[in-house]
Design goal:
Elements: H1 2-19, E1 37-54, E2 78-90, E3 93-109, E4 114-116, E5 119-121, E6 126-147, E7 150-168, E8 175-193, E9 198-207, E10 215-226, E11 232-245, E12 253-258
Antiparallel strand pairs: 1-2, 1-12, 2-3, 3-6, 4-5, 6-7, 7-8, 8-9, 9-10, 10-11, 11-12
Length: 259
């Protein structure tokens, strides 16, 4: 009897639609195979930083000491970073928008004479320095491999560097240099599953060598834990290098390394 009803049901529905022209056939609603996914990442770090902030005045030779000041001599060797990133994944494509606010400051007594932006700071001067090096990012990644939960993706990105450096001492007029510069990068990501809830994610960024643009390289490895259906937590390590040199006769040249 069960088998008879199994075959009879579709037959009755078919005859009903033929016998009554006013009946409607409801189309089958299918769930998208690749639904859009969103993720938000928030982070805060306190990291070691090294580098130099060569800052002339209008590119004039002699208006800055070459390769100085260094962050070490300014006792500005650590930085606070606060960041947020929004990722939207549609099928094989991931779209990224994010930003990092980077702040550092230091006070020191100079052991050598220093010239920066044509301001003179003699040996023994007590100075105070502040650095803003914010970075805003747009990016696109496309999956090139996705099998057994192992995913590899490649793409391109763009960075906007918002830079400000101030240095003050006994003189009422100190150094104050600001600029915003854009650059382009190549992006990569590899995700490896470790268990049902644990995975390892490696991200990399490498600069494209266009003139007068910030050369930003970055790498990180994160251990991701799926805390719930919508929340992941992670711990990780990484580094970030920013190297910018313009094309003046005596260039602005900043170079910082966070790790």
């Amino acid at each position: 009897m069960g088998k008879l009803l199994q075959y009879a049901a579709p037959l009755i529905l078919t005859l009903g639609s033929i016998g009554c022209n006013s009946s409607k056939i409801t189309p089958e609603i299918k769930t998208p195979r690749n639904p859009t996914k969103y993720s938000v990442e928030l982070k805060g770090t306190y990291s070691k930083m090294e580098g130099q902030l060569q800052t002339p005045a209008s590119g004039e030779p002699g208006s800055s000491t070459k390769g100085r000041p260094t962050l070490e001599e300014l006792e500005m060797d650590h930085a606070y970073t606060y960041g947020a990133t929004l990722e939207t994944k549609i099928g094989k494509n991931t779209f990224i928008i994010g930003g990092e606010i980077v702040r550092a400051s230091g006070k020191a007594t100079l052991e050598e004479n220093l010239t920066s932006q044509n301001k003179k700071f003699p040996e023994g001067s007590r100075v105070s320095a502040h650095l803003k090096q914010d970075l805003y990012t747009l990016g696109w990644l496309r999956d090139v491999y996705n099998k057994n939960r192992i995913t590899a993706a490649m793409g391109i990105g763009g960075d906007l560097l918002d830079f400000n450096y101030t240095l003050s001492g006994v003189s009422p007029v100190g150094v104050d240099r600001s600029y915003m510069k854009a650059g382009a990068t190549v992006l990569g990501r590899l995700t490896l599953p470790l268990s049902e809830k644990l995975s390892l994610q490696a991200d990399g960024k490498y600069p494209l060598p266009f003139a007068n643009t910030p050369q930003t390289s970055k790498a990180s490895i994160k251990l991701m834990h799926q805390f719930s259906e919508n929340i992941n937590t992670f711990v990780g390590i990484g580094f970030k290098n920013i190297d910018y040199e313009d094309e003046q006769e005596f260039p602005n040249h900043i170079e910082t390394k966070n790790k």
